[in-house]
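ok, trying the design again with the full structure, not the truncated one.
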């Protein structure tokens, strides 16, 4: 936490200037300085940002764990440092990537979106990278710009790769954007085409895509299809179902954010934790503007209507829900 406590804008800039002054001025650096007069200073700033993040990551793994706000506090400082570096060198993609990350961690969605948009503009949509396009698409979903989200996520779309969480996130975000745009058939097709073979379900990326497919079927009240997807996962994973799904959801940043409750609620039904599932359904439904609020309430009512002996089903109850208990849920 040493750098976290000490890293403020003025000392970093002073060190950057010192390193820039100390840089040898050979022919190559002379001509680069002509084209990019602030390159040495920006290099020093980027190095300091990476060092600060490395120190924070190291402290999080040590016996003395920093408070949860440490990364947010650091991110807010780094946003200022990187914004300054961006002004010095507007075409530096490394700076823009780091600025987008820092703004994201600081909760500055507008600045993160601007940095990502700048990356796409500089590199071109075909060369901006799937991660930048995915994050830009997620930001567009949050802003209600569904056509923009679908366009950039289509470019980022690709096969699901184990160990590359972004490949699954792109498909989930694309499916979400299509569904919110009223294209539920396309939303399902995006995920159905990417369905993994059963021997790949242990990969969190494949499990996330399968769960997303079940979510889309469930929201469209294709309950038999949703049940089939979940049953296939349960058979393939057995007692590893819960940890695999939890790991998959931990790697996902949802857009819109409230979608995480819907996914977790369905996951809890799959693994048989119905009290927790009911809580998540009701938390999702507490937002009266939630697009699938009625379906979430159907799930909660179905759980309420179960007799005690059926409170631990081996699979979620995706059949037509019985009438609600009087006074249980409005």
């Amino acid at each position: 936490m040493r750098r976290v406590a000490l890293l403020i804008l003025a000392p970093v800039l002073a060190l950057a200037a010192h390193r820039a002054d100390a840089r040898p001025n050979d022919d190559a650096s002379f001509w680069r300085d002509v084209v990019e007069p602030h390159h040495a200073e920006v290099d020093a700033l980027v190095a300091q940002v990476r060092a600060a993040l490395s120190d924070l990551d190291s402290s999080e793994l040590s016996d003395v764990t920093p408070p949860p706000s440490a990364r947010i506090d650091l991110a807010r400082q780094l946003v200022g440092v990187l914004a300054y570096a961006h002004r010095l060198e507007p075409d530096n993609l490394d700076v823009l990537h780091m600025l987008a990350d820092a703004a994201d961690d600081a909760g500055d969605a507008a600045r993160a979106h601007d940095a990502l948009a700048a990356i796409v503009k500089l590199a071109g949509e075909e060369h901006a990278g799937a991660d930048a396009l995915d994050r830009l698409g997620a930001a567009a979903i949050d802003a209600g710009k569904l056509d923009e989200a679908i366009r950039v996520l289509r470019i980022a779309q690709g096969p699901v790769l184990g160990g590359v969480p972004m490949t699954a996130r792109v498909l989930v975000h694309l499916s979400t954007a299509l569904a919110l745009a009223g294209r539920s058939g396309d939303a399902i097709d995006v995920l159905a085409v990417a369905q993994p073979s059963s021997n790949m379900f242990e990969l969190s990326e494949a499990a996330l895509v399968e769960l997303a497919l079940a979510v889309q079927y469930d929201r469209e009240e294709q309950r038999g299809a949703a049940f089939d997807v979940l049953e296939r996962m349960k058979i393939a994973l057995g007692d590893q179902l819960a940890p695999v799904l939890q790991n998959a959801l931990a790697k996902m940043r949802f857009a819109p954010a409230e979608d995480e409750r819907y996914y977790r609620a369905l996951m809890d039904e799959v693994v048989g934790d119905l009290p927790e599932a009911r809580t998540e359904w009701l938390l999702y439904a507490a937002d009266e503007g939630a697009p699938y609020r009625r379906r979430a309430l159907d799930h909660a009512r179905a759980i309420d209507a179960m007799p005690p002996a059926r409170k631990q089903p081996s699979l979620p109850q995706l059949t037509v829900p019985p009438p609600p208990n009087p006074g249980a849920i409005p």
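Keeping the full-length input from now on. DSSP finds 17 helices and no strands in the chain.
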